[in-house]
Amino acid sequence: MNVSLATVSDLNSEGWGVVRTEAGEVVFVPGAWPGDEIEFSILKRGKFNLGKLEKILKKSSAHRENICPSRDPQTQRCVACPWAGIHYKDQLEAKNKKIDFLINRFKFAPKIKNPILPSPEEFHYRNRVKLHREEKSLGYKDPVTLKFNPISECKVVEEWINLEIKKLSSSLDENSTQEIWIQKGQEGEFNQGNTRQNNQIKEILQKELNQKEKNQFLELFCGSGNFSEVLKNSSSKLLCYEGSQSSLQKIDDRKWSNVETFHLNLYSSSSLNQIAKMNQNTQQLFLDPPRSGFKELGHLTQKLPKLQKIFYLSCNPITFFRDVVPLSSEWTFEKLYSFDMFPQTPHIEVMGVFHRNEARQE
Ligand SMILES: C[S@@+](CC[C@H](N)C(=O)[O-])C[C@H]1O[C@@H](n2cnc3c(N)ncnc32)[C@H](O)[C@@H]1O
After folding, report:
1. Hey, which residues does 240 pair with through a beta bridge?
2. Other C-beta atoms within 10 Å of 285: how many?
3. Is there an atom of ligand 1 within 6 Å of 194 CB?
4. Ligand 1 centre from 10 Cα, in Å?
5. From the CA of 355, how far away is ligand 1's center (Å)?
6. CA dist 14 to 10, 11, 129, 318, Å?
7. How far, in Å, CA of 98 to CA of 83, rounded?
């Protein structure tokens, strides 16, 4: 095994340490943190070079003891929470830096940038989880190395999920499915993974909305109405679009008088025209797409002549910036919020507020 020495310079988008070999190759090393002096070997070369942390010779002050009961005895980490061995304040600082980096890289800066809002709970915040089964154990699978990390209990899930894990673990056999979701509500239906942080986002959205002047509102990727509940109070009419029929049914069941739902594949080529047809009078847009984002945002705004304001919530800041850059000539990037939805992981949730610079000529 060839071991190299390096000082970690940065974090990549997965939250892994970035080092350079003497030959100048960039290597990503999970478990390493900026400032660490490390020994590493190369596990895999390819689209990116993946390193294995052999030893930390000198630790950055960001490290702390990892108290996860299911951490791998060798690496001292669990694949679900790669940052559990880092102080929470350093995790937040790294997330703020990542946002600054993206603002510079995409050259579209908000007038007001709010520092990341910490999660109300650092542990036991997760209300849903996907586990894998290997033989008679439940655990998490590393998405890159596919290495299985068996767990007995998990520090970041709500306590009722740990009770479920215990119950399930005692009844597993070879006929049990290999992927097991533990969540309230139906499988396949989305719900935000950190209930109290989700409530804080809803409060901020509520404050951002203009309560006095109610006009037509468009919501894309509305799920089962998590944010529609807030948006409908600031709308004369709220048109909600979503691809999951069972999620939409949940909105319909609530019988909100000013809300209409539409079942639509928002990534289909005909969807923009279908939305545009119904939304010629729409003045405000809220969207909350999956990680892949919504590349057509710029095109959609061109088709909505009355649109004045956009609220874009995203679980992937990279696709968020990609999608909003085309707005930069006609829109002002008023505010950027960042939220820590998943402490102990590099994940960041963001919400941008945009205002159209001037009324378009019709
Ligand atoms: C990040 S979730 C947001 C859901 C909702 N805003 C919430 O807070 O619960 C993204 C939503 O996009 C929906 N979705 C995924 N792909 C879609 C598609 N091709 N067309 C329409 N909706 C889609 C999912 O069903 C999910 O409800």
Report:
1. 219, 261
2. 22
3. no
4. 32
5. 24
6. 11, 8, 19, 12
7. 15
- What residues does each domain of the chain span? 4-60, 112-116+194-356, 128-183
φ, ψ (nearest 5 deg) of residue 252: -60, -40
Q: Is 192 touching ligand 1 by the criterion CB < 6 Å?
A: yes
Superfamily of domain 112-116+194-356: Vaccinia Virus protein VP39 (3.40.50.150)
> pLDDT, tens digit, for every residue of 109-166?
999 999 999 999 999 999 999 999 988 889 999 877 788 999 989 999 999 999 999 9
Identify the DSSP state of 281: T
C-alpha span between 107 and 67 (Å, rounded): 39
Classified by CATH at the fold level, domain 4-60 comes out as OB fold (Dihydrolipoamide Acetyltransferase, E2P) (2.40.50)
DSSP 221: S
What is the total residue count of the chain?
362
| Pairing state between β 215-220 and 179-183 | unpaired
pTM for this entry: 0.94
| Total Cβ atoms within 10 A of residue 276 | 16
Q: How far is the CA of 289 from the centre of ligand 1 (A)?
A: 6
Cα of 243 vs centre of ligand 1, distance in Å, is 7
Q: Do domains 4-60 and 112-116+194-356 have the same CATH topology?
A: no
Give the contacts of 37 (CB within 8 A, at least 6 positions apart): 5, 6, 7, 8, 56, 57, 58
Residue 336 neighbours by CB under 8 Å, 6+ apart: 99, 103, 110, 112, 113, 114, 350, 351, 352, 353
How many Å is the Cα radius of gyration of the chain?
Answer: 22
Q: What is the DSSP string of 52-96?
A: EEEEEEE--TTB-----TT--TTTS--TT-TTTTB-HHHHHHHHH
Nearest CA to ligand 1 atom 4: 223
Ligand 1 neighbourhood includes 340 CB (under 6 angstroms): no
Report helix, strand or coil for 225: coil
Residues 166-207: tens digit of each pLDDT: 999 888 877 778 889 999 877 778 899 999 999 999 999 999
